[in-house]
Amino acid sequence: MEDSNIPFNLEDALITCLPRSAYYIPNFLSLEEEGFFLHKIDAAPRPHWRNLSHRRLQTYPSPLTLQNTLLSSPLPTWLSDPLISRILSISFSTTDSRNVFTDSPHRAPNHVLVNEYKPGQGILPHEDGGAYWPVVATVSLGSAIVLDIYSKKQGRSEERDDAPSWRIIQEPRSLLISTDAFYRDYLHGIAEVNFDKDLTKASVCNWDLLGKREFVEGINVRGTRLSLTYRDVLKVKRLVKGFSFLGKKG
Fold this sequence. Notes:
By secondary structure, the chain is mainly beta. The protein is built from 4 helices and 16 strands. The strands form 4 sheets. The chain has a 7-stranded antiparallel β-sheet. Strands 6, 8, 9, 10 and 12 form a 5-stranded antiparallel β-sheet that branches.
């Protein structure tokens, strides 16, 4: 059975061709752990899924309010243990013991999106926005997929270059961490295709970090891919005990 790969620090996981704030770790989960997460996601009651036009998702512990506020509630244990402690255990370097969430308001992720992409599905280039601390940790499950990175035009969040500036392969069981300038200054998206093509060392910026490079003729045939996206929501509202969401006594 393939074991997980947990580095002591992020120095060797740095994606060097990107702005200095993105890291890639293959085999962050073992095959057994991946199977556990796939089972938990599949077993979720149907109301937990929100169907969008090109994908569906689950949100934990709850969606943000219209004011981009998270109602305080713990994450389910299966999403927090051991993944969050594993992410927090990785320091920046041998001389910097901080982790990627050390300086965030809550010093750990407090929100998780579970996204499902079937072959041919994707998401338009976008930025995650100001509701979160500028760190996102994404664990991929099920199938490999290519993440396209776009430069903004003249710093405008709503405009981008036509072609991606970089491409990142996200393998099953991998962890991708985006921080700082890479989080703020670029857009990311997933093309709505059944095949990712032209995958080579020259076209994929994390090629040397991949766990496997088994892309026959530079093609990735997509299966169903799921992702766990961990972030720290900046604004959290604590509910007063004894009151309902409407502010009345329960």
